[in-house]
């Protein structure tokens, strides 16, 4: 007798075991590496400026090149992974990161650095949507969102740890040491993933590939499963053919997709506006360089706390009940920050609350996108949503620079940030109202 085995039902219904935990741990390390590499240029920039005798403005295009590359990588490699699998894309991306970071450490001019950072950005952009998709496809249903957000917090951990590593290495070994570490880490991770990272089981079944390997993997997820029994492996969704991008707008997904793009664009615009200019604005308000840096760090620490805590609440209360208050809190905290930035202690508190809402909330938005799209569109859907977020991230610093050139006051610069935060809240309400945001997280 031939029986049907629903892969998704097994993965979703089985408590988190050692095998799944190891998969998620490798995804977490991918995010740590990504976060470190994103921030590496910021940590090395002062030493590069001093050593090469250039102005800070000369490195502006280099920072933009990284963000542009991440936009390209997010848009392109989500779709590629839906076709060839999550595993090969992640292996290629981490390998490319290792090579590019090595050559970045040996670069000698701004033009060379710009090209390398553009290519590095493309590799970094390929990681996040595919890590999100793969994590979604190995996490149990009952605590899926919490696990996804723990994985996503790896980016913040990487950025924070990178600062400590840079502070320890640069004074003794120069700015190149940051990029050498950024080369060695993804190389080690690539070797680990080559031997230990499996492909998405749902993707394999829908593509009718590696089915014997899928059966062997099921024995590690579900104790007692017999891979030799006559069976047909299935996933409770139809296989899809043709171009993936147009399918994001069919079968009732049009409004949901557009709202996800708007949410990501506006929130990341807000994130990068504040991340880029908060230390500058705090310094201009009379705070010391150390206090200004700590003010910027406060937002990332708050975001890390949000990533760790909000997922637990989403799994129990649903996306809507958590995300709307979180982003509302961030908008109110921005108003508080605009009024109290002269007091360093209140500024730290306000920035931590902002980070909790917009950075912690962004991790939940990424999880929401992953649950909104089916397996065959998950890489494409999350990639495009995150890509539009990167576009917002590119716009944020430029908007800030333009407003500063127009001689806007610090208070007005901060208050205007409430606009994208408020738009995010209304877009989330629209997503909820149109029944595109489940009351409880669900996934096919």
How much of the polypeptide forms β-strand, as a percent range? under 5%
Overall mean pLDDT stands at: 85
Number of strands: 2
Please provide the ordered H/E string of secondary-structure elements.
EHHHHHHHHHHEHHHHHHH
Class per helix and strand makeup: mainly alpha
Poorly predicted tracts of residues: 438-444
CATH class of the largest domain: Mainly Alpha
Shape: globular
The CATH superfamily label of the largest domain reads MFS general substrate transporter like domains
Number of domains: 2
Q: Per CATH, what is the topology of the largest domain?
A: Growth Hormone, Chain: A
How many helical elements? 17
Intertermini distance: 27 Å
Spatial order of the strands in the main sheet? 1-2
Brief descriptors of the model:
two-stranded parallel sheet, mainly alpha, Growth Hormone, Chain: A, globular, disordered C terminus
Sequence-ordered SSE layout with sheet pairings:
Blueprint: E1 3-6, H1 7-13, H2 18-52, H3 60-84, H4 86-105, H5 110-136, H6 144-152, H7 154-173, H8 176-196, H9 201-207, H10 211-221, E2 231-234, H11 254-284, H12 289-317, H13 319-340, H14 344-372, H15 375-405, H16 410-415, H17 418-433
Parallel strand pairs: 1-2
Helix pairs in contact: 2-5, 2-6, 2-7, 2-8, 3-4, 3-5, 3-15, 4-5, 4-8, 5-6, 5-14, 5-15, 6-12, 6-14, 11-12, 11-14, 11-15, 11-17, 12-13, 12-14, 13-14, 13-17, 14-15
């Amino acid at each position: 007798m031939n029986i049907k085995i629903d892969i998704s039902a097994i993965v979703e219904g089985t408590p988190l075991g050692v095998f799944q935990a190891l998969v998620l741990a490798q995804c977490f390390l991918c995010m740590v590496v990504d976060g470190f590499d994103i921030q590496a240029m910021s940590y090395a920039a002062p030493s590069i400026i001093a050593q090469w005798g250039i102005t800070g403005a000369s490195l502006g295009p280099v920072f933009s090149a990284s963000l542009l590359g991440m936009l390209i990588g997010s848009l392109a490699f989500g779709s590629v992974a839906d076709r060839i699998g999550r595993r090969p894309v992640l292996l290629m991306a981490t390998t490319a990161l290792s090579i590019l970071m090595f050559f970045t450490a040996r670069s000698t001019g701004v033009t060379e650095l710009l090209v390398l950072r553009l290519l590095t950005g493309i590799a970094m952009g390929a990681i996040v949507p595919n890590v999100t998709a793969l994590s979604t496809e190995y996490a149990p249903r009952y605590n899926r969102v919490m696990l996804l957000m723990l994985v996503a917090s790896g980016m913040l951990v990487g950025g924070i740890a990178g600062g400590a590593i840079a502070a320890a290495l640069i004074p003794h070994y120069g700015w190149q040491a940051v990029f050498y570490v950024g080369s060695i880490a993804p190389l080690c991770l690539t070797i680990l993933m080559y031997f230990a990272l499996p492909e998405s089981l749902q993707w394999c079944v829908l593509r009718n590939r590696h089915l014997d390997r899928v059966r062997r993997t099921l024995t590690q997820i579900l104790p007692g499963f017999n891979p030799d029994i006559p069976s047909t492996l299935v996933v409770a969704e139809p296989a899809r053919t043709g171009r993936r991008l147009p399918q994001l707008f069919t079968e009732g997904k049009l409004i949901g997709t557009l709202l996800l793009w708007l949410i990501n664009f506006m929130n990341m615009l807000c994130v990068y506006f504040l991340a880029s200019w908060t230390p500058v604005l705090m310094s201009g308000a009379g705070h010391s360089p150390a206090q200004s840096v700590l003010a910027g760090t406060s937002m990332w620490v708050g975001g890390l706390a949000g990533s760790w805590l909000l997922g637990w609440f989403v799994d129990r209360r649903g996306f809507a009940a958590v995300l709307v208050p979180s982003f509302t809190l961030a908008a109110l905290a921005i108003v508080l920050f605009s009024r109290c930035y002269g007091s360093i202690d209140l500024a730290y508190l306000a920035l931590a609350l902002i980070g909790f809402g917009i950075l912690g909330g962004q991790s939940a938005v990424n999880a929401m996108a992953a649950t909104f799209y089916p397996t065959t569109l998950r890489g494409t859907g999350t990639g495009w949503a995150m890509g539009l977020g990167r576009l917002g991230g590119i716009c944020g610093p430029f908007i800030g620079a333009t407003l500063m050139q127009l001689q806007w006051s610090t208070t007005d610069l901060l208050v205007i940030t409430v606009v994208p935060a408020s738009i995010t809240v209304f877009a989330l309400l629209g997503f909820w109202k149109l029944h595109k945001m489940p009351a409880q997280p669900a996934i096919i």
